[in-house]
Design brief:
4 copies of one chain form a homotetramer. With about 110 residues, chain A is mainly α. Chain A has helices at about 10-35, 40-65, 70-90, 95-110. The interface of A and B includes residues 1, 2, 6 and 64 of A.
């Protein structure tokens, strides 16, 4: 659990970001690459990797205690929402859709 | 929760790594930089940042599904053990000591 | 040199980002921690680490080929400009000031 | 250019790592995902991403000034050599092969 200088709402957002990072990255390599086809189409796969990276970075800024975390969380919310939509379109990616939606919501609150 | 291609032992190790990363980074900036003195001594502070980074990377390799995760986990166990010892020496860093010890143990098992 | 799918302006921006990341991180640990005093004051040191991280991430998004790189570059320009100003205020950090300014300029162009 | 606390051999190794990171990541998304087929086969693509990540991390440890950089460089040399071999097997990836070979060599020297 992060240092006590971080309040409960931020801890919950960090958790949502690290979970979404974990789900996106492990689903990209353990599911999309295994199945192939539309799952390795460039636009989709790049979005999965971009989503993993922005979640990792937004969490990093909150852990650092940087006031810029709000901008990173706003960007994270946007990319997560887009990733959720694209995963829903492909189907059979419910865990990823759920992780992205939860992270988008937590990040939107943090960015406000 | 990471993709189902990752078994329970590895999930537990990923969690331990991401927790240790979170605790080390947020403690370095929220505690060590706030207190100063021995806490911002170069060797100690660099070790905290190195520990955060290797935990982040070991988790990344497990999430990727790379067979090289074993080597990263072995290195992570070593750095975490050293960081735990150094935090114990300084005192008043119990959360960091506990997170590093738990991560070192999980990584040692994963590396075996 | 990154893949040819990346044009010359973007390559130059990636270089500026990776250079600023390198200078900020190595200066934070090799200079600020070595000197101490105002250089390890929480606000300054956290800004150095945040600057290193956003540069690393902006480069990552350009290398991924994600259209969201523009937003990351805009944020990177803002943090680099702030870091340059803070390093100038402290003095004796000319390399860091120059790297941050060059990166801010390249990122502003990329974000436009 | 990284801080002067880093000597010429290490600077050259950091450059080789950041270049290999850049080439592997941009080639994975700008070439492999665009071409498909064997290029998005799970083992190959995961190796490309693992190579990019270990290069990024080895550079980070050198920039931090952590004595553990030697272990990371040893691991980086191993993964880069394997990635070079796999890219050569697939063909039409000469830039990636060259970047991986150069990085493996620089990292082997740094690890010694």
């Amino acid at each position: 659990m992060p240092h006590e200088s971080i309040d409960a709402a931020m801890r919950q957002c960090i958790d949502a970001c690290l979970n979404c990072y974990s789900v996106c990255l492990s689903t990209a390599t353990g599911h999309c690459l295994a199945i192939g086809g539309a799952h390795v189409e460039r636009q989709h796969f790049t979005l999965m990797l971009a989503c993993a990276e922005i979640c990792r970075t937004a969490a990093h800024f909150m852990l650092l205690g940087s006031p810029h975390h709000k901008h990173l969380c706003a960007e994270c919310a946007e990319i997560c929402a887009q990733c959720a939509e694209d995963c829903e379109r492909l189907g059979d990616m419910n865990d990823c859709v759920a992780a992205c939606r939860a992270c988008a919501e937590a990040c939107r609150r943090m960015a406000a």
